[in-house]
C-alpha cells in the first residue's frame, strides 16, 4: 500500500466532474452590508446583533440559483448556518434562532434545494462548527457538540439527497476534541454519497485532516497538486475564492477581474481541483448587479469552453510557462490545450498591447500522435507539427472584437 495511490470512490469522482461551483454567504449579516464577520466588530455584542432576526426577510432562492446556472456552475454551497449561529433551515426545536422565527417565516434551505433540483444543480450545505451565539460553545463544549451533531443530522435527513457538507470553524479551537469521527460517520451513514469537507483555514491550505474527509480545501490560495501516494483514502481538492474582499455582502468595490477569476478556475483544473467561487447576496436574497454581471461573464466563457473544465483532468504541465494541457476523462482521444495572454490576430502591435498576437509555440511531453488541433470557440484548424514528444503549434489570436481571456484548443489524437 505504501507506494500505491488509492482509487477514488464514485461519489468523489462525481464531485470532481462538477468542476465549478458557487459558494453563497447569506445570513443576518447580509442586512448590515459589512461582511460576514461584522459581529466580531459590533461594539454592542450579540444582544443587539440578534435583533437582526426581527427584520430578516428573503424574497426567495430563485435568483441565487439562476446566477449559478448562468455562470456554468454545477453545484452551489449555501450557508445553512454561519458563525453568527442563525439557521436558514428549520432546526426542529434545537434553537429558536432561525429563519422561521423571522419575517421570512419559512425554511429557506428547503426552498434552496427545490430551486437547485429544478435546474439540475447539486445542493451542498455549508455549516459552521464555530458558533458565536450558542452559549454552550464556550461554556459546555460537549453539550455544544451534541447540538452541532443533531443540527447536521437534520440536514442529512430532511432535504433528500445532497452533494455534501462543508464545515468551517474547527480552527477556532485547534486543541479541542471536536469528535469529528462521530459527526462524519453519521453523515456517511445517512448520506453515503455526500462529500464531507472541513475548511482548514487560510493558514493550512491543502492540509489533510480526519480520514473521513473527502476533499481538502485551499481558501483564497491557488490549489496545488495533491500527492495521494500511500494515503489511506483518495481525497479531492477544492479552492474557494470570493469575488471581492468579503464573503458576505459589503460596501466593497475591490472586485477581482473576470480574467483573474477565469485563470484561477483553469489553474484549479490543471491540478485536478474544483473551483468554488463565492457571492454575497443582498439582504433580501437578490444578487447585486456587479456580482451577477461577473458571474454571467464567466458563464459566457463556460458556454464556449465548459467541456474542457468539466471533463478535463491533469495531463501536461510546464515549469516555465503558463500553458498546460488536460486530458478528457470521457474520451481518450481528446485533450485540451489552455493558452493564456493571447491578443487579437491582427498583426498590428498598436492594437494588441501587452499580449502575444499569435505565433509558433513549442510544447513538450506530447507522446501521442495528433490528428488535429482546433480552437473550441470557432473550430479554426491550427497548424502544427510533431517530432518525438515535441509539439510545434501556430497559435492564432482572438478575432478582433472578441477577447475571452483564456483560449482553449481541442486536441484530437489518432
Itemize the secondary structure elements and their pairings.
Blueprint: H1 10-18, E1 20-24, H2 45-49, H3 62-71, E2 75-81, H4 108-118, E3 122-128, H5 136-139, H6 141-157, E4 164-168, H7 180-190, E5 195-198, E6 215-219, E7 236-242, H8 258-270, E8 274-279, H9 289-311, E9 312-316, E10 324-328, E11 334-340, E12 359-363, E13 370-375, E14 384-387, E15 390-395, E16 406-413
Parallel strand pairs: 1-2, 1-8, 2-3, 3-4, 4-5, 6-7, 7-8
Antiparallel strand pairs: 9-10, 10-11, 11-16, 12-15, 13-16, 14-15
Strand fraction equals 15-25%
Strand order across the biggest sheet? 5-4-3-2-1-8-7-6
What is the molecular shape? globular
Q: Mean pLDDT, as a whole number?
A: 92
What share of residues is helical? Answer: 10-25%
Tell me the Rg in angstroms.
Answer: 23 Å
Major sheet attributes: 8 strands, parallel
CATH class of the largest domain: Alpha Beta
pLDDT < 50 stretches: none
Structural class: alpha/beta
- At CATH level 3, the topology of the largest domain is TIM Barrel
CATH superfamily of the largest domain: Glycosidases
Tally of strands: 16
**CATH architecture descriptor of the largest domain:** Alpha-Beta Barrel
